[in-house]
Amino acid sequence: MASLHYYLLVSGLLFAIGLSGVILRRNIIVVFMCLELMLSAANLTLVAFSRFNGSNGLPDYHGQMMVFFVITVAAAEVAVGLAIIVALYRARQTINTEDLTSMRG
User: What is the pLDDT of residues 51-60, one digit of tens each?
Assistant: First the structure.
């Protein structure tokens, strides 16, 4: 059985991959997917702590309830974020972040 250490290691690696994608990538869709990867890493951490920090061998479900709310907010973020990306593409005909530095239309 995997211990808390392994879950935290995987979560840290996922978060690092997501962070490097946000910093290094130029495509706004890839940046958006990397942000979602970072949220998933945080969710994995919450579930791992919820599972391993329970009393009497039973998990504490507060972390898992928090994950439910994070997933709900992430779904709303995806809807709004993709709408913004589509609007930017229609206005500028590009999804490259280097070309989207100005707020002028």
Answer: 888 777 677 7
Entry pTM = 0.83
What are the tokens at 4?
Answer: 């808390």
Measured CA to CA, the distance from residue 85 to residue 89 in angstroms comes to 6
Cα(87)–Cα(95) distance, rounded to whole angstroms? 10
Nearest to 78 by CA among 20, 37, 19, 24: 37
Q: Which of 39, 36, 38, 60 is nearest to 48 (CA)?
A: 60
| Torsion 105-101-37-42 (CA) sign | negative
Q: Quote the CA–CA distance of 41 and 9 in Å, as a whole number.
A: 10
